[in-house]
Model the fold of this input.
Amino acid sequence: MKDVLTTCAFCGCGCGLYLQIEKGYVTGVTPSRRHPVSRGRLCARGWHIYEFVHHPDRLKKPLIREGGAFRKTSWREALEVAARKIIGIKDKYGSDSIGVIASAKCTNEDNFVLMKFCRASLGTNNIDNGASLYDSATCPGLMQSLGFGASTNSLNELEDTEVILAAGTDTTQTHPQVASRITRAVSRGTKLIVIDPQKTQISNFANVHLRLKPGTYVGLINGLIHVILKDRLINEEDVFRATSNLDSLKKMVEKYTPDYVAEVCDVSGSDLKKAARLFAGTGRAMMVYSTGVTGQAAGKDNVCALANLALLCGHLDGPHNGIVALQEQNNALGAADMGALPGFYSGYQRVDSETEKARFESEWNTRLPARPGLSILEMLSPGRLKALYIMGENPLITAPDVGLISETLKGLEFLVVQDIFLTETAEFADIVLPAASFAEEDGTFTSIERRVQRVRAGVSPPGEALPDWKIITEVSNRIGYRMNYDSPVQVMEEISHLTPIYEGISYERLDEEWGLQWPCPDKEHPGTAVLRRDFSAGVKITFPLIEQNGRGKEHFTPVEDIPLVEPPDEEYPFTLTTGSLYWHWHSGTMTRRSATLSREYPDVFAAINPEDAEQLGIRKNQRIRIISKRGEMETAAMVTDRVQVKTVFIPQHYKNTASKVLLNPSNFANGKAPEMLCAVRIEPVMKL
Amino acid sequence: MSRYEEDLWIITRDNLVALMEVFIKTREVIAPVRGHGEEVIFYPIESIEDVAWDWQYVNAVLPPKRFFLPQTEVMFEYRYDNGYKITPRYDDRVRMIFGIRPCDVNALVFLDRFFGGGSLSKKSPDEEPLFPDSHYIKRRANTFIIAFGCHQPGENCFCVCCDGGPFLEEDYDLQLTSMNGDYAVEVGSARGLKIIYGNEHFFHMASSDEVKELERIKEDALNKFGDTCAYVSKAIRRVTEAKVDDSLWEKLAERCLDCGGCSYVCPTCCCYNIVDIPLSEKSGIRTRTWDSCAFAGFTRIAGGEILRSDKKDRLKRRFFHKLSYQYIEKNKRHGCVGCGRCITTCLGDINMPSVVEAIRKQKVTVQAAATLRHEEEI
Done:
């Protein structure tokens, strides 16, 4: 028996934990006490992360579709059929008829190899990762303003800042380590501003809770900016010197008066002013936000608005002063870092840049496509593609509109899914390839604080399952593009060779430390806890968009508020919101198979406000029907004042949720973030 | 002093290393080892090189509880084939825990009473266990205990307030205490004495000066703890007399993140859940896993109702169980040994010392007094 130190895979915080191993089984976990994130602490998900690992449902052999059912098969047959079909489709319809969905749950190495497979072997840039469904806004939003699409600061800095602004994040549910730091900060005197339609556990501690109407973040944040400028809470001259585009921001926020905000967001002028004074009146403030902000058609605008606010108040400057983007999936950042994005190679190097493309072409010995590929939503739109290769993602649960996604999957000529369980998505596949879980694989994850950390195998994969990177190389070799890696160490060598922000990262160094925070441009570089635009000074790393914006300054991106895609009306008076529960994670594939975690909320429910419940004659646990323009679902009612009047919250993790049946897919076509909000009406199934 | 054997022995560090090497060859030796970044965890060692010595650690993140009650264990396999066939899975390994701290040993004695009804402890052999837990009992009986006395409390230690340490008076096989570069060896059981006699060339009898020196070390150690013991007794009294106002639990509940870590790292917590995992249509395994009163699902009953759905009720229950006299009477001690692990592990910074402190400071309110009167009338 030996305990194996690894990185938790159940959110983006990146806790260090030991897997307890007994005779080839993981029998428990121990939190790492010295690890800078876990510090001897884990959340309920972390404590039970091992429970799914040996579940009897794990895929142990490749499956091949035969008629309506799956037949277990050998690796040899599965790989040969997969390669043959892919070659056939490529020859018949061209490379761009194939798409690849990478996983924000898999390791950096898996994602890098898949990215290479997509671009070099298939010859298309149609690759995106699952996190784009939620957190797609962070990357472009922050990139546009700051020059890089990631958190500027580290988690531990939250404890020593003076003001924390938490927007659209039920942090205790999604990122317990962050919530823990917020609670601790507050007990040390830090002021807390919460912007969220819902009451959350951290809003109990808030000095101001701006309980805005769902989906009206831009209006509210512009309102804050308006007040800050109008009341001269900051020194405008200084801001003007340090940034670009302040003038157009000023002009744009003129209309966002407290009265306007009161009307659009339903937030009182006095609360707005209080929050503005708190946030602008300190030298040290940090911002955290999560899917409440990003999971909206206007998600990118929301992020830009937040960045504007931070920039205006000088809160992007040094330690305890910055933005932490709380991405939900454990390796959301890593997947993007590795180039599992339609327009970027690893390290945000552009596919449409001749020099960067040329470098990858010469290293990989092949021609690469120059045009950016399709986003995940475009790939999942019916009829866009002929074949899809999906690694470790379950869009049927995580993307809006189940009906539309099933139509897409059914319409494909060929679908390969590699995963650890037969997911709802995998049930549509022609070939299912059994993959190793985080407990069975060596590699790295990159956390929300840009910390690249080791994942270490504690046990062997079940049956014939293989690590994802290994499976991809086998397919690639059969397609005719050679990939020879003996181990993930070699993949990391290639990553650091080709990726300036990872250049100083090696397994050796990661093993010595508690990971390294990128950018880490050379072997001596200690990693970067606090990232600033001027990082590039003196080293060869450049952040592309900063240069594009010119002047090397942080840039204001004025954004106007836009109405919800589907605002509530007389017929559908409620706003449906979705989100995560503490006890489940993502599509629930793993947590629903964990006895302890799934016991808390075994079934889906819909949370409504007591006032609405009374009006509609609905009692606790009563069956209710929720109806949108697109469909309806039945579930049990939870009556709680955590949700606002005239809103209903349905968690996203369940197979039978069908909450996604209700959601509006209207953004699919233009490739924007899906809107996790829509208008519904509620009625009891049986009137009591 | 209730040592099994009054004589005090001395072993040099070199001899201790040599003795451990003998043990490693003949049984599974569980010891504190230095993990990544010098942090200490308990696990079976392959070489004496791996061991973290007593001056290198105060205690590990997790107590050695997991070697007696693993976070997950298979209890038995079942098969249905013209009737049920149950095959228990026992862990028969001969083991030794080296370097366990007195608080954790006291916690094991607490667990003994729960799983074995006291049959494993000398304190109350009269109690016949109602449901002896053969899995626990087998592991416990097969494990030899070499404890390390503590002369330097760690930053979170408060064992002196909880009768958990810093030295053991009984319930060990051997207790080692660092003394002038060597170790004083106290013998706590017949099998402890057998080890000494079986390896006599490693030990020598302590001189009367050395006996006095050990006494001095023990007294010194006690003085290094702050004088906070009275608070725990006051908390016990107030909890027992229901004089703690609910507002305190409400306040704490705002900080609790339901992680269950308090139970998992607590060396005396031993609630578990039973999960049957079918492996085929006719067979499967029954497993048990750690559970925690911090989870709402812990009190889920048939029909889906949850008895303690409010976080404040769960917290209240937890500390009531740890501190109330009705449990102290049953368990022969209160449910905290002062190891301080909850201080490290709680995401909301709720822990035994902070709760005890909050209880002490809280004014007894009209409501709490009324509850008390009401209960007395009943």
